[in-house]
Amino acid sequence: MTKSALITGITGQDGAYLARLLLDKGYKVHGLVARRSSDSRWRLREMGVEADIVYLDGDMADACSVQRAVIQSAPDEVYNLAAQSFVAASWNQPVTTGIVDGLGVTHLLEAIRQFSPHTRFYQASTSEMFGLIQAEQQDENTPFYPRSPYGVAKLYGHWITVNYRESFNLHASSGILFNHESPLRGIEFVTRKVTDAAARIKQGKQQELALGNIDAKRDWGFAGDYVEAMWLMLQQDKPDDFVVATGVTTTVREMCRIAFDHVGLNYRDYVKIDPAFFRPAEVEVLLGNPAKAQRVLGWKPKTDLDTLIRMMMDADMKRVAKE
């Protein structure tokens, strides 16, 4: 029997990779899509799946449309990937971030509780909930200390998921995902900002790259690997929360070196530090411990940072050359 899945945030990076994964597994995939005047489906087109998805109009801030999407899709599985996910923007839009990333999760869980309690639910939590880290390496038992409106809103979404799981016996799991990137990542995120700039500088279309704290350390993986962990969580008999990470931390500086080296340039000649790009409350280090995901889900990342950055560089070099 064909399974039905509903993906919120389907037009984002993770949504596109997850949609392809589920379609390859034979699912009927529905996508909740907010009405926009701009082209929001380009990632799905890049993945070759745009025409294979059933699109449902809706917005996470609107409970009625979320309920309607759950009823119409009759999902066996719901993946909540919708979010205002750019940390810097959350300082300028704290209320919107709180509504979409926090309250929106409640809208979805309540719709499942009322209309489809058999549905298995995945919540996209984030390593930004750890913020001011309370342990050298963060796992499922590490205390949270978010340092941005984004992290705070996501923490609400995480805990409301736990509460609905425990209070209403829903199969609701959260993936605490550390940074994961791909050629489909938005240009506002630091990885794509670096690879795009390196491609432009190499082709003479840009002179320098302004960044903030390049000594910040992050645990970077490939989005294509991480969506597999999402799916595995909903195949378990018992719902639970899992850290999904590589277990390796790297500075933004080193990431710049890899990207610029790939096109024969020295990043030191082009990267400039601009204080305007520093966060109001910096998160210096994030390093995940994926031992539980490896043990319970049988999941391991397949793509190292060098391979990931080179993949992104190749895509950006081709894209910039066509502009």
TrEMBL record:
It comes from Pseudomonas koreensis. It holds the Pfam family GDP_Man_Dehyd. The keyword NADP applies. The gene is gmd. GO terms for molecular function: GDP-mannose 4,6-dehydratase activity; NADP+ binding. The keyword Calcium does not apply. InterPro entries: GDP_Man_deHydtase (IPR006368), NAD(P)-bd_dom (IPR016040). This is GDP-mannose 4,6-dehydratase. Belongs to the NAD(P)-dependent epimerase/dehydratase family. GDP-mannose 4,6-dehydratase subfamily. It catalyses: GDP-alpha-D-mannose = GDP-4-dehydro-alpha-D-rhamnose + H2O. HAMAP family: GDP_Man_dehydratase. It comes from the Bacteria. Its cofactor is NADP(+). GO terms for biological process: 'de novo' GDP-L-fucose biosynthetic process. Coiled coil: none annotated. Its EC number is 4.2.1.47. Catalyzes the conversion of GDP-D-mannose to GDP-4-dehydro-6-deoxy-D-mannose. Residues 6-312 form the NAD(P)-binding domain. It is an enzyme of class 4 (lyase). Keywords: Lyase, NADP.
